[in-house]
TrEMBL record, chain A:
Protein name: Transcription factor IIA
GO cellular component, one term: transcription factor TFIIA complex
Keyword terms, alphabetized: Nucleus, Transcription
One GO-annotated biological process of the protein: transcription initiation at RNA polymerase II promoter
Cellular location(s): Nucleus
Region Disordered, annotated ranges: 214-252
Gene3D superfamilies named in the record: 1.10.287.100, Transcription factor IIA (TFIIA), beta-barrel domain
Biased composition range(s): Acidic residues: 215-252
InterPro entries: TFIIA_asu/bsu (IPR004855), TFIIA_b-brl (IPR009088)
UniProtKB/TrEMBL annotation, chain B:
Keywords: Initiation factor, Nucleus, Protein biosynthesis, Transcription, Transcription regulation
Domain called Transcription initiation factor IIA gamma subunit N-terminal: residue spans: 11-57
GO cellular component, one term: transcription factor TFIIA complex
Residue ranges the record marks as coiled coil: none
Signal peptide start and end residues: none
Keyword Transcription annotated: yes
Lipid biosynthesis in keyword set: no
GO MF assignments: translation initiation factor activity
UniProt similarity note: Belongs to the TFIIA subunit 2 family.
InterPro entries linked: TFIIA_a-hlx, TFIIA_b-brl, TFIIA_gsu, TFIIA_gsu_C, TFIIA_gsu_N
Protein name: Transcription initiation factor IIA subunit 2
Biological role: TFIIA is a component of the transcription machinery of RNA polymerase II and plays an important role in transcriptional activation.
Amino acid sequence: MSVQVIYRLIIDDVIRKIKDPDMGLNLDDNVIEELQTMWEARLENSGAIPHTIGHGETSVLNPNNNNNNIINPNNNNNSSITNINSVQQYQNLQLPNPNNIPRPNESELTRNGIHPVGVRHPSEITTTAGRPTGFVPTFKEIPNNNNYYNNLTNLNPTSPISSASLRSIMNPIPQNDGVNDEEEEINVNSDKQDIDKFLLKSIKTEQNFIVQMDGNDDEDDEDFEENKDQNQDDDLLNSDLDDDDDDEDPDPVIEHYVLCQYEKVTRIKAKRKCVFKDGVMHLNGKDSLFNKANGEFIWI
Amino acid sequence: MSNTTPAKQNFYELYRRSTVGEALTDSLDELLQNQYIDQNVYSKILTQFDKSLSEALSTGIKTKSVIKGKLHTFRFCDSVWTFIVDNAEFKSDSETTRVDRVKIVACDGNVTETPNSK
């Protein structure tokens, strides 16, 4: 017999037993009819059975829903607030429906200086988050912009070069990060050789021109790895504080299942042989039944 | 899964998790919520369902199947075997079905006496 026939037999048997006075339930026929209709409708809607097992009689509780007995069980329940009825009542109350509220024109809002939360036109974004601020380092002697490029191309041996201007020569990119650079009391004559000497001296002493205020000091390559590891350890994101999620849920939700009874389960090395009976299978969204089944599973 | 204890036979509540069982359970839940039935009626109907389905499966079906696959997980607790099988293949008389992972829950089918309810 097919699944459809078996389920039909089950439903009829249950309903018949419910109606039996010996069972002592004392239920109204209306309630029993309603239960059967709802049961069949849900079974139909599940899609596990390809063919309908429809209930021929109309629901007594809802004589007007003759055509909807099988389609939606909620239609057949007259007393409870069904999904459809509740929606109709909701609409009739004329409560403010979020869907009816017209979306304000963003241009109108912006004209009034109002921006919807979380909605900003890209052109209206004026924040400078993430962008370098317009920090202008203060120098004791602010280099003359007119002479800035002149200093690069033509070192005037006669004019004294301050530390700031010297730094601007060596580091033409203006510094916008961190605090002011340390200013060295360097009084370098305008002689080119002196500048070279200064450069050599700074290289030898590994003097940092820019005081690094962002993060750890940069180290040599040998030290860098050590610091890198240390930084990783200090980084809370990668610390052991994070909870280790279980790799697998002990009872995962699996789409396909078999409900049955076992008669025998044996094992030979890594192979298990099982004998099942009276099984209900739900595979690929469809139900199937078996009286006997043999299982061979290899555990690797 | 507990054993119901009518006079002579055991009927597992196992099958309430099937499609037909959940359809009945959901329907009964709705009736119970709307107070058309009480908890006693609810339990009795489900017990009757357990019995009807077990009898239908044992007498109304003659299908035999073969299940093969790689055993991912096995568990035996309270006389219930649970297998999670990967790459399972189900062969019956008419067709072959393959799924990537299936969960098999099997209660003891050798119990004939009425155990003490827990």
